[in-house]
Amino acid sequence: MIGKESLSATNLAAYHHFNCDLFIYNTYNGVEGLTISSDHVHESPTKLDAAQFKRGLDWEKHLFSWLDRENLLLTVPSYPMNVEDLVENILADERNHFFVAGISFMPPQEHFDEMYRKAGLEPVKFGLAKPDLVEITHLEDGVMWKVIDAKASRAVKTSHHVQIYFYTLCLSLLLPQYFFHTNNAAAVWLPPEDGFDTNTPSFDDLKTVVTSLLSFPLDEFLFRRLPTILSHPRKEVFWHYNALCHGCPFSKDCKQKAIRQGQIGSMSNISIPEAKLLRSLLQIWRDSGISHPRGETDIEDLALLLEDGKGLQKISTSYPVTLRKAKRILTLPPRNRKVSKTAAPPSPILQAARTGEIQVIPRRNSTCPKIEDIAVVLSLLLDPSASSGTSSIVSFSISIFTTETISVEIPRIVHSDRTDLIPSLAYIIDSILSLSRSLNKPPRTQFYVFSPAEHSALQNHFIDAALNSAYPTQDIRICIGALSQGASLLQTTFQPILLSGVLLDFLAKGQRKKRDLQAILERMNLSIEGNVEELKRRIQEELQRLQRDDYRQAAQQQRRDELGQLPRIVVLKSEIEKSLALPIPGFWNLQECASILLSPNLREAQCPSDEELYDVFASGGSPSALLEQRNRSIYAVLVSLRSHVCNVNDHLLLNEAKVLTSIFMDVCREERLRKLFYMQQFEVLAKLSDLWRSRIDGCPEAPILQYHSTQQGSKRLEHTFYLLSGNLDMAASEKERSFFDYLLVEDRDCDDFESDAHTPVEALFDDLAVSGLVFPLNRYTKTRWQSQNPTVQEELLLADVRDISVQGIRTKVVLQTWGDATFKFSEEHTYRISPRLVDFNISKILNALFELDLQHELENVWVPYIQIIRNPKSFNQEIISSTTRKMLGKAGSDMQSLFRTLDGLDVEGAKPLVLKASQNRAALHILSNRLSVIWGPPGTGKTHTIALSLLRLFNVYANASSQPDLDILPPKVVFVTAVTHAAIDAVLKKLTYLIQCYQSIDSLPAEWLHKVSIEHVTNGNDHAAPSDSSVFSLYAGTIFQLYNFSKRHSLSVDCIVIDEAGQLALSSAALVLRSLRPYSRIIIAGDSEQLSPILAVKYHQLKSGPLFGSILDTLMYVSRPSRIEPRDTRPSSPVPDDASDMSSQSTIVQLTENFRLNPDLGEFVSTIYSRAFRPQKVQARQIALALSSISQSETPQATNEYLRILDNIRKFLLGLSHVMLKRPQGVLSPPLLSSLNENPQLNEFRPLIDVIPHPLSLALIQLQTVSKRHRENVGYELHVKAEAAVTAALITTIQQHLPGEDIFVATPHRIQRQAVKAALSAGHFNASLSLSKIFNKMTIDEGQGKDQIESSVIVDTIERLQGSEASFVICLFSLPQSHIADLQFLLERRRLNVAISRAKSMCILISSAEVLRPAVGALTDEETTKGYAFLRAFADRAWSSNVKVDIDAL
Ligand code: SF4
């Protein structure tokens, strides 16, 4: 039994990769029968493993030789060095900036030993440390150093962070600190995305992390957890056999142990978090107090638990989320209607492990076809040593399996190397298409690969090929058309609308040349041969065909025939995991799967392993025969899968394969438009896929309602229900409009979708047929409803949620319904309600993009939309002469001086017309430039600035007769838009107010105001066109109303203003920007640090900048001044214009004066903006005084947990008031400002600490939820309940002492919102505070003739609070240990910023250790790290207190 008895950084990294205590324990202490060599994870038992390792070495070599060529490399001798030698080597080099390679040294063991000794723990020994590079920068007063490791992976991993942190920690203790400064950062250098063989390394790929952020979790690991693990008795060390164990030297041993001991790891594909969840479920059951038999092993206990109906019932009441997750892991139906009150059905995955037999998972599968006529199976040989993902396919084999009826007109087998892949696929697809044309009944065809890795390599290969002209375009088009997901949605649903709509408009405009007609025919995939007349006729005929609605009918037919959507290429491994439970512990590959599913006598059961295949390739042989054999195995496995599933239930595989089509329509030709076009479609597809997935299982998560009564509403009947389970939400605004965005069906006990042939009625609903229709339908649109499946028409209603309210412990839901369903509501019955796709805009956006593309290509005009995306600077420079610029600038300056003078003379009404310095810069920019991006942190007066700038603009042009030769268009027609109605109203209100101010100043000429007309477009289809060309017409409305308005009157617009542009997607902005005429103006205002448009899919950003986010992000990125270093790609932090720099070069102006936030909050929030903004408000002393009266109030005796919470919260608020009044207090801990690093290079992460004394407006409650019953496994619901109780205590106390102050409670999740409402309505803290008082505007008479003060409490999700403000903001950002998977969502910096910056006077953040000190794994995501840095900055400068809540007592 020999262990290493010391650990290297690589071992620590491997521990984090395997996430296994036993791994590090065995490595250090040894294990019987195994000898551990150093860094054994890099041992290379197979050529495949060696190839993976080789890629890392190749990248390192490539990087070092590039650094050497660039004269940036210093290589030191590779023997272990002492520090003095290392220092000497570094100081001997005279270059200012270089990288040192080859360093190896012994860690500062003595220092570490001392730390362990102080903590009372056994010291851990560490071996030689070998960082790849240390970056050195000579400074005036010393040397700045940074550790860098070269890693050949595609993204940074936790294991990389562990390594660079360890090296940094060691060096910071070893190097003389007076001269060697660490810059609190370390980095991982990744290879270029397109491969390092053809591209040089780039500084852009240096992924830097702030080491102080890593220190929280990693110091805890190194100096507490690690010694504890290593000193445990072996049998108490945590381990779980799972897919990550692949490559672990102890794998064989653990696999046997998992089976022998009946561990959870004896089941297949259970991840570590899943295993932990199952263990905590078992613990909950064991602690539940119900007597039950006990098994010998974990899997036996799980089986007994599922048989214990009473126990399950009890758990489902207290831990519904945990139980639901456990059921999903155990492949059980989430809600089983027939047997929910007794035992659960047996879990197939559990049964497979217990019996050793294959089990069928009785769940519907819509993604694996039950039959096809032609199966095309692809095997790809991937080379892990390839320098990029796209070049990883080295060889392939395609085999075709057909039913007997198909003749042999298609090739049966093709294999070759990667260069032939696309031509071969195109040839096969073409052959199948020809065969289809020759047969009466075209063959149903399905493509298959085995692994997700092959699937993604194939998709990458297509994308690569599409961007690389080396292949014949036709082949690529055929492949993408036939095999790319989403192509069919475009062809059948959107293409007809686009082609017939936009093309008709386009063709109607004037004479078209032959070239134009050919371009159109190409887009329609029609022949371009013939003379002009023939071409025209061909287009006309096709358009007529489209108008006859053939396509729509075909689309509907296709959607009706298919439940969900079959993937174009099925990944067989995923389908097997979905439908079968295999008796293989931990994880399995094709070889194991074939050996268990196929009879050993079959040739197909002998499947070559990945290692065998790679060995042949690496030895220079041809892998064709083995790949062909692999294809045969894959097909045999597919057949076996079907036979297993169909033997149990013939209805589980829902779909048949489809007839192959390969229509690839390149609707947009301009590169960026084409990408936006596809993104819009994928958005629809992603949303639909989510809906389909849940509907096929009968919407297991859908809220269940019990009918109560029906009454007459204002327009229609309203039905009242009580919510029995689940969460239901109602849009906060716009309830005057009915979207009927839910499906309502009867939830019958007899429905057992998991095994019955009965299809859930929601799964038959065709969303796309009615997604853009306004309900209730009229007699024209009703035909669309009639095209729905008859069952849908009979059994389903569309529902609109009119109201949700809490009544005691029940939630009342009021619905309006629409439809012809024949069932009658009854109190006896329950109903389930689930969302549908509502999208009024997608086809409009696609239309607008297509239209812009046609204009761009065929009309030979400058299209402003494309110009600003491509090159906003040139858009700005164009046209305007320096004389005009000067003249406009001077006019603006004159106006500012005039109002400043008037204000100085105390003229009433003048003050609001004077802009602050940065606002005035913005106004001058708007006057004299075509494109202005006004960027401002919260509360800097963006709306005020744009409203006043517009008035100044009108003013200047109204007097233009006295200023000749202005060569920029006068703002005759102006559109003002924003995403929300509230933002549009705010601009209109501001304009009205400012006009009143103008008019109130008698000495000012105001005739020009008569030429200005301002209209709110609420219904674009009915709004009147501008009537008088001599006036300036401003139209404000949503993008959709302005789109309708401009379409209806064919309006061209001279100026477009977009407010809150950070929320508007670039693609949606096309709806208004399409109307811009050349030489026009664009004004964009917003804050890119606030929440951006919500997209269903996370898109990879392009190297050219963000295209799939908001228009603000895109413009701020592409407008970056060139002086920004290339590696700084954050769109949030461009260097804004200098005050002096008003040239045409710049487009961005940052507003810096803050009107909302007080100094503390303002300066805290400014830590994420590149330039500080100046707070204008001072803290209200009256808040402190009012809170100080808490001491005089009666604090009831803490007889229960709620009163104890209230007592704590009162003490907390009282402590805050003492802090504000500079009185001593002992409840709150002061901010940790002194611990912050003041390095100026880290401004991005660091607050401006030296200018702020102790901030008084930032407060932190560290919530700890404890439970004797549940130990550390506090479930999410219980934690949220505790968080809500603390929040309710805060609200109650603040309301009591500061009744006039508004309070926002910002909740990331809806469940938190519901919990806070429930806590308040329960009246634990103040029975007299009724819900209606809390949630409706509350009017309090202050008496003595004072005005009435309105205060309100709003509890809402952060998305909905954006754009509003309150005196107090309580942000709920806490999590229990059991729910840390949610951390990434919670730590999104924009979300935190929006929540915190709503506060005018005080922000109280409720968080927990899990969020404030996240696990190191959370920090590999760049965005999460930014959010965490922001949260830490808050925590470090907040006055804080701990609140412990005993959830057992709630
Ligand atoms: S095989 Fe898995 S469970 Fe066993 S020591 Fe390795 S990582 Fe841990």
How are the SSEs ordered, and which strands pair?
Elements: H1 9-18, H2 21-29, H3 47-69, E1 73-75, H4 83-92, E2 97-101, H5 109-118, E3 133-139, E4 142-150, H6 158-174, E5 180-182, E6 185-189, E7 206-210, H7 211-231, H8 251-260, H9 272-286, H10 298-307, H11 309-318, H12 320-329, H13 348-355, E8 359-360, E9 374-382, E10 393-402, E11 413-417, H14 421-438, E12 444-449, H15 452-467, H16 473-483, H17 487-508, H18 514-523, H19 532-547, H20 550-561, E13 569-571, H21 572-579, E14 580-581, H22 590-597, H23 610-618, H24 624-648, E15 658-659, H25 671-696, E16 704-712, E17 717-725, E18 742-746, H26 767-770, H27 782-786, H28 790-795, E19 797-807, E20 810-818, E21 830-835, H29 842-858, H30 864-870, H31 872-877, H32 882-904, H33 917-928, E22 931-935, H34 942-958, E23 973-977, H35 981-1000, E24 1012-1016, E25 1032-1036, H36 1039-1049, E26 1053-1058, H37 1066-1073, E27 1076-1086, H38 1111-1118, E28 1148-1150, E29 1153-1154, H39 1159-1165, E30 1174-1175, H40 1181-1188, H41 1201-1220, E31 1258-1266, H42 1276-1297, E32 1303-1307, H43 1310-1321, H44 1331-1335, E33 1338-1340, E34 1349-1351, E35 1353-1357, H45 1358-1361, ...
Parallel strand pairs: 1-2, 4-5, 4-6, 9-12, 12-13, 22-27, 22-28, 23-25, 23-26, 24-25, 26-27, 29-30, 31-37, 31-38, 32-35, 32-36, 36-37
Antiparallel strand pairs: 2-3, 3-4, 6-7, 8-14, 9-10, 10-11, 12-15, 16-17, 16-21, 17-20, 18-19, 18-21, 19-20, 33-34
Helix pairs in contact: 1-2, 1-6, 6-7, 9-10, 9-12, 10-13, 11-12, 14-16, 17-19, 17-20, 17-29, 18-19, 22-24, 25-29, 29-37, 32-33, 33-34, 34-35, 36-37, 40-41, 41-42, 42-43, 47-49
